[in-house]
Amino acid sequence: MIRVAVVGAKGRMGASVVQAVNDADDMQLSHTIDHGQDPAQINSDNTDVAVEFTVPSASLSNVLTLIAQGVDVVVGTTGWDEDKLEQVRQALANAPRADQSVFIAPNFAISAVLADHFAAQAAKYFESVEVVELHHPDKIDAPSGTAIHTAQAIAASRREAGFGPMPDGTVTDGGSRGQVVDGVHVHAVRLRGLNAHEEILLGNAGEQLVIRADSFDRGSFMQGVLLAVRKLRDGGYPGLNVGLDTFLDL
Questions:
Q1: Catalytic residue among 31, 117, 124, 139
Q2: What is annotated as the active site (predicted)?
Q3: Could you read off the pLDDT of 89-120 as tens digits, one per residue?
Q4: Residue-number span of the structural domain to which 142 is assigned
């Protein structure tokens, strides 16, 4: 049995993870931690893998604590920039175990990961690409970590293909063109009734390709979360790993 702790267990995603772990035949819930409780209660004596779903302002501290405790960590909280990732890498370099792992996923939905992968492949063949992400209004970050990751993958693919800047004759300053991530415009919609959705729009003269991924409820993320837990427990992924595509045959 894989002993799994959940940090952020009373949150919307954390509660879903608790239920998924309880339903899994090969897992046992070891600890549940929420706001105001010390994640240092979780250690290598009682937990194999911790799943961290909290908020961006707390996630880095939680992850660094869990690393110091000798526990592998699966992180679903968004808001990770390069500075935070580097702090995780440094902590892992001094971790109690040489093979210790941290896995961070911008999105745990298989459909979203495949959409991201397909968009990077398609971006080599289209002059224009933009990303639209749509979420429920209770989401605290915008644009989503998934959309930022998608835009970065698109930008890397375009650089590899030798593309320059995308055509854009807009002359108004700021406002409605969305955030620019590595030269890719990313638009965020927050609307009651939505859960988590992403569209990648790719255009050439006379043609358009739309790639869309829809997660209608939080259950869609659980397959990816449990896959990550199992992969870390099995070993072979020391250090920092980012993106569920790490575990998929893409």
A1: 139
A2: 135, 139
A3: 999 999 999 999 999 998 899 999 999 999 99
A4: 110-216
User: pLDDT tens digit string along 143-196?
Assistant: 998 899 899 999 999 999 999 999 998 887 666 899 999 999 999 999 999 999
Cα-based distances in Å from 67 to 5, 103, 146, 202: 13, 12, 24, 40
φ, ψ of residue 141 to 5 degrees: the values are -115, 145
**Residue 145, pLDDT score:** 86
List, for residues 10-20, the tens digit of each pLDDT value. Answer: 998 999 999 99
Q: Is 105 annotated as a binding residue?
A: yes
Give the lowest-confidence range in 35-49, 163-177, 191-205, 218-232.
Answer: 163-177
Residue 125, Cβ density class (10 Å: 0-12 exposed, 13-18 middle, ≥19 buried): exposed
- pLDDT, residue 174, reads 62
Q: Is residue 150 classed exposed, middle or buried when 0-12, 13-18 and 19+ CB atoms within 10 A define those classes?
A: buried
Same domain, 197 and 223: no
Residues 72, 141: one domain?
A: no
Q: What total number of domains does the chain contain?
A: 2
Is 139 a catalytic site residue? yes
Looking at the structure, tell me whether residues 125 and 148 fall in a common domain.
yes
Q: Which of 31, 117, 135, 197 is the catalytic position?
A: 135
Q: Is 78 annotated as a binding residue?
A: yes
Q: Is 149 annotated as a binding residue?
A: no
Written as one letter, the residue type at 182 is: D
| 11 labeled part of a ligand binding site | yes
